Amino acid sequence: MSRYFFMETRGPKGKLAWVRWAVALVIALLVGYLASMGVNILPTACTLTRLHGPYTTSFSRTENPISEDGQWTNGQKDGLDWANVQMTPGFAFGTQAGGNRSVPVKYDDSTALLAGRWGPNQTAQATVHTVNQNGKIYEEVELRLRSTLSPHNATGYEIYFKCSKDPKAYCSIVRWNGALGSFTYLNIIYGSKYGVGDGDVIKATMIGNVITAYKNGVQMLQATDNTFTSGNPGIGFYIEGATGVNGDFGFRSFTATDK
Predict the structure, then answer these.
(1) Strand partners, 141
(2) Is the Cα torsion angle 204, 205, 210, 214 positive or negative in sign?
(3) In whole angstroms, what is the distance from residue 137 CA to residue 181 CA?
(4) Exposure winner among 10, 75, 156, 253, fewest CB in 10 A?
């Protein structure tokens, strides 16, 4: 047993072994010191296995599509069949053509998802900006949870509110099934209090299989679904019935977490 325990220290091989042990000891002590100082020195490959910390943005740049140093994937850029999200300082909004188009093309919502690996229990929240509201136009602001984007495929959960305060306003929870125009309503509710106005804060959570929508801290709608157990949070916008009005509605700020 002892021959496996004791190290041969004589000769060149023994000296090399001692050098290796000394280097390993110094590295271990350095790692311990940096960790005690709160410095994260783990490689990126290791940090990807952890839950994603909160991501908050006020959209400080001008970008089309939105990127923020590679933090976002986009509907047209990465999914091909959907539209991108763009931003100007302090405002994120869609690029969808709008108008009165046929199915399924009209369902190419402007979509952007946060990159990286996220835990399944997710919260997304955004502050709405909306002007020139018209009940005859469908302008929707959307939060996404457990969502994915790849060429010709978009899955996950969409929680959306109409930018209107008329009696036909609504809040809805929808599951995206993959192909353009393939989606399933999980719940929807109508009424003026379910629409949004400028400055309203909307939030969506998914804990386990329960999806909940909030406006200004008040629960608006809830649904359950077991289809998707992973994916990323994000944002989206939908316009139908008008063109050239993408800048009339969007988000001023956005926060997502899986804590």
Answers:
(1) 161, 237
(2) negative
(3) 19
(4) 10
Is the Cβ–Cβ distance between 252 and 129 less than 8 Å? Answer: yes
pLDDT in tens, 52-96: 779 999 999 999 999 999 999 999 999 999 999 999 999 999 999
The closest alpha carbon to 126, from 6, 256, 12, 17, belongs to 256
The sign of the CA dihedral 250, 142, 230, 220 is: positive
Dist CA 93 CA 251 (whole Å): 7
Q: Which residue has the tokens 């929508």?
A: 213
pTM beyond 0.70 = yes
- Cα–Cα distance for residue pair 133/114, rounded to 1 Å: 29
Is the bond leading into 65 cis (omega within 30 degrees of zero)? yes
| CB crowding 100-112: b at 16 or more within 10 Å, else e | eeeeeebbbbbbb
Report the amino acid identity of residue 7. M
45: left (phi over 0), alpha (psi -120 to 50) or beta: alpha
Contact in structure between 178 and 154 (CB atoms under 8 Å)? yes
* Cβ contact 111:74 at 8 Å: yes
Task: Determine the Cα–Cα distance for residues 251 and 176; give it in Å rounded to an integer.
Answer: 21
